[in-house]
């Protein structure tokens, strides 16, 4: 594949290494100093773009790719309120996109376990649900997109819960998300069910960004020959 990397920070560099290891070529690198190069002319011969930038720039980046007909993988979090708009535009333009809050294989297995656990726990009263996420100090958004995805998946399945909050609460109808920023931590997510008698804990710890980069490249390989709006679950089918 001929790939464009949009966002050339730490994740962008990891993605580049994985692409090269898997026999792909990086034809275009877009960063804050050359954002004007993200245009139809430069994207004309690109098979797929991989976008990891910031919440303030992701919408524009992904929209440009959609309008230029370039399949795009986006892993930027913190702009979810605009995602549905671009998914609809993608369908209208007969273009291709995939977005995920986390491309790690292990995290997505955790997502599935989280949904199953929530369905089981919905049968029992007396458990409070909390989520803790830990990331490096340079992460822009809090809570993380992964933590929000975990919370929303629980909310879809636990009838007595109706919201999540990212601040301490005593509200029994809320899922509390605690966000911590420490050193260079790639990402740790813990879902905890606590009653007066016991605790059940589901935890995923990421050791390096390479797992995220590999998942994003696998997603790019998947969508490059296809049309439509995809999710990470499509890679598991």
Topology:
Blueprint: E1 2-6, H1 10-21, E2 25-30, H2 40-43, E3 48-51, H3 55-67, E4 72-74, H4 83-92, E5 96-99, H5 105-121, E6 128-135, H6 145-155, E7 163-165, E8 174-181, E9 187-194, E10 199-206, H7 210-223, E11 228-230
Parallel strand pairs: 1-2, 1-3, 3-4, 4-5, 5-11, 6-8, 7-8
Antiparallel strand pairs: 6-9, 9-10
Task: Provide a compact summary of the structure.
With 237 residues, this protein is of the alpha/beta class.
The share of residues in helices is 25-40%
- The number of strands is 11
CATH class group of the largest domain: Alpha Beta
Q: How much of the sequence is in beta strands?
A: 25-35%
Name of the CATH architecture of the largest domain: 3-Layer(aba) Sandwich
Number of helices: 7
Order of helices and strands: EHEHEHEHEHEHEEEEHE
What structural class should be given to the helix and strand makeup? alpha/beta
CATH topology of the largest domain: Rossmann fold
Oligomer: single chain
Count of domain modules: 2
Uncertain residue ranges: none
Please tell me what the overall shape is: elongated
N-to-C span = 22 Å
Which sheet architecture does the biggest sheet show? 6 strands, parallel
| Overall pLDDT level | 92
Radius of gyration: 19 Å
Going across the biggest sheet, name each strand in turn. 2-1-3-4-5-11
Write out the CATH superfamily name of the largest domain: NAD(P)-binding Rossmann-like Domain
């Amino acid at each position: 594949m001929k790939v464009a990397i949009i966002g050339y920070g730490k994740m962008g560099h990891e993605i580049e290494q994985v692409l090269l290891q898997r026999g792909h070529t990086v034809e275009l690198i877009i960063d804050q100093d050359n954002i004007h190069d993200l245009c139809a002319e430069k994207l004309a011969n690109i098979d797929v773009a991989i976008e990891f930038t910031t919440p303030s720039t992701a919408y524009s980046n992904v929209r440009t790719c959609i309008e230029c007909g370039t399949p795009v993988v986006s892993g930027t979090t913190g702009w979810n309120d605009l995602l549905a708009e671009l998914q609809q535009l993608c369908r209208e333009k007969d273009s291709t996109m995939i977005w995920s809050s986390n491309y790690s294989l292990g995290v997505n297995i955790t997502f599935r376990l989280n949904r199953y656990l929530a369905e089981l726990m919905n049968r029992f009263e007396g458990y409070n649900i909390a989520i803790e996420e830990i990331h490096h100090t340079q992460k822009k958004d809090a809570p993380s997109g992964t933590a929000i995805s975990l919370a929303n998946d629980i909310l879809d399945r636990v009838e007595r819960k109706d919201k999540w909050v990212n601040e301490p609460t005593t509200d029994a109808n809320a899922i509390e998300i605690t966000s911590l920023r420490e050193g260079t931590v790639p990402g740790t997510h813990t879902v905890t069910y606590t009653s007066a008698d016991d605790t059940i804990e589901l935890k995923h710890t990421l050791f390096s960004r390479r797992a995220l980069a590999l998942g994003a490249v696998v997603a790019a390989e998947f969508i490059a020959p296809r049309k439509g709006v995809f999710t990470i679950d499509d890679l598991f089918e």
